[in-house]
Amino acid sequence: MNNTNTEHINTTNYSHTDIRNIIVCLEGKYPVEKWNVNGVYIWPHIRIKLFIVLLNSDKPLVINDRATSRDVASKVKFTLSLKWLQSLWQLTLLFFKLREKPLLFFGSHFHRVKYKEYYFNKYFDAMIETHSLQEQSYIVEFQKALNPIYNSKIVLNLNSYLPLLKKLEKLINNNNTITRFLLEDYNEFYEELAQFNINRDQLKLDQNSLSKWTLKVNRTVKIFDYLFKKIKPQKIIFLSYYGFDDIAAAMISANTLGIKTIDMQHGPQTNVHMAYSKWTKIPTQGYNTMPKEYWVWDDISKNNINEWAKDHSDLNVKVVGNPYINFFASSSKFSSENKILYSLQTFNDIENQFFTPAILKLMRSNTYYWVLRMHPRSTFNATYLREFLKSKSIDETTFEIQDSYQKPLPEELLKVKLHITNFSGCLLEARSLMVPTLVIDQTGFEMFETYLDHKLVYFNDKHSKLFETNFIALFNQLKHNTLVQHSIIYNPLN
């Protein structure tokens, strides 16, 4: 049994470290590696769900399964309409046109940025373009497809077809369903969840909900079986293997068919991110909803995963660098003397989280020019932010609000003297470009503690009384970097 205990953890507002300790404790106490419902090893699903819920334990609980294509079967009457027949015909044509290719990429619209008037997948298109892999690749968009989209001839817009396929699969295989549970000590685990700040009914981790979830996933597995057997990929590369029902189904299908499954880093993979950290119990054959290989940006990320993966011969971790950075960045610096890039995130309370009195005072000083970069999944828009800053007497000539879809991050980072963030993964990209980052939130300190070196990554608590003084001193001591050395963009066929 794992010796971590949770007796002294605040049960109303958890830190990332608290959450890690809770999950590792539960994992050590119960035989989670054996839990299987309808052939699906469910602990990764439960672990990630707990991670997300506990991160938001101080907010009203809203649970989404993040299913990427809505199950329209329960919402739309199934009729042989002209539109339905057209969709079925288009789907038939698609399957006939598909041909065998060694590489299959799974990405989403929030992995894209505007480049040459097209929406460009920051990681996949960079590799495909560099190594001329259009004939060897398909890119699956498992959510909405942005238009115009880069490499459109090899993009499979799964969201256009998956709802129809799910409906057909449910009609064909919805009879005589038998649920198979292997859930030793699960009732005791489920009862223990009550001690945390969790609404278990909304969490949907009771046995009945798990049965419904696995049956839904397994219907989608059959769809991916058809797709993968048609394309016969050697590798399937995912940008985020966790949190999406359709990706869980694709992962199960690929792992069952013996296709190499790869998770490619798209953000922080620190020792408090529970999708990548502290897995203490893994089945002999591995979890069928998790990848067999991890492609990461740097040695710190590799070491974090290797801490638990090294003992499993079928798991591999490989440093491949960040193709986004290497594709877009130039070889010389052209930073501004006073420009700051501030990576915003998805907080609703922008005053307390982003613009504390000390930060607003710095903005009013007119000493710096602020580039406020919106998160691709921001819960507020640019108009709201601009009106908020106007209400705080911030001169509009001293800042700009930037849409992350419209401008490549590496190009923008190279224009600034300092990057600021609460806990955004943009820190890792800035670090790769030798652009200094100031972390200003305690959560960011927990996440990036191993990166803090007082050369490229600094910490200054935004709520500290000395924040303004420390900020000015740091900014004045920063020196311009001259050259950035970029590594070769990794060829995924290797």
Overall description:
The protein is α/β, with parallel strands linked by helices and 494 residues long. The chain folds into 2 domains: 1-320, no CATH class; 327-477, 3-Layer(aba) Sandwich (Rossmann fold), CATH 3.40.50. The protein is built from 18 helices and 18 strands. It has helices spanning 16-29, 43-55, 82-97, 124-131, 162-172, 186-192, 200-203, 207-231, 245-257, 299-309, 323-328, 350-353, 357-364, 382-391, 409-413, 426-432, 442-448, 467-477, and strands at 36-37, 40-41, 103-107, 112-115, 118-121, 137-141, 155-157, 181-182, 235-238, 260-264, 293-296, 316-319, 339-343, 369-373, 399-402, 418-421, 437-439, 457-459. Helix 8 (207-231) crosses helix 9 (245-257). It starts with 15 loop residues before the first helix and ends in a 17-residue tail after the last helix.
Defining key terms:
18 strands; Rossmann fold; alpha/beta; 7-stranded parallel beta sheet; 18 helices; 494 residues; 6-stranded parallel beta sheet
